[in-house]
Write a structure and sequence with these properties.
This protein has 162 residues and is an alpha+beta fold. The chain has six helices and six strands; from the N terminus they run βααααββββαβα. Bound molecules: zinc ion (3 copies). One zinc ion (ZN) binds next to loops.
Length: 162
Amino acid sequence: MSDKIISPFFGQHNHAHCTQEALEQAEVSCAGKGLKLTALRKEVLTIVWQTHKPVGAYDVLEELRTRGHKPSPPTAYRALDFLVHAKLIHRLASLNAYIGCPAPDEGHQGQFLICTQCKSVAEIEDLRIIKAIDATAASTGFNANRQSIEITGLCGACESQT
Ligand SMILES: [Zn+2]
Ligand SMILES: [Zn+2]
Ligand SMILES: [Zn+2]
């Protein structure tokens, strides 16, 4: 069993690098899976990757309009659905918002640490939690096939300011 930090809380860093890497990875990942990363889908992915903070569908739509696109809301929502399906972004149910995933090709079930102050999100995968839930669910006859756990609190940077 190994646990990993899929996406840490980022302090000062060259974020253009994160975005560029995510886009390159998305191209490779989609090509490998035979999925079509259209110009609009790519643009939506870029918007989600603007920061390490989750963005709502409405914000994506607004940003697309700012960038000179005129997508109908369903078009923007479908692009987000595609990106979730392609595992390039995750949907955070508690916030009804989306966050880019830096590891789309590493099968994982996300656990998300959501900072309530700066809104940053870190993604971790603690296999002990996943196995514990699987085991307890199985003992009731339930077959858990997808886990998404959202945990709220304060990140280290915000915590040290209080
Ligand atoms: Zn970054
Ligand atoms: Zn992920
Ligand atoms: Zn924070």
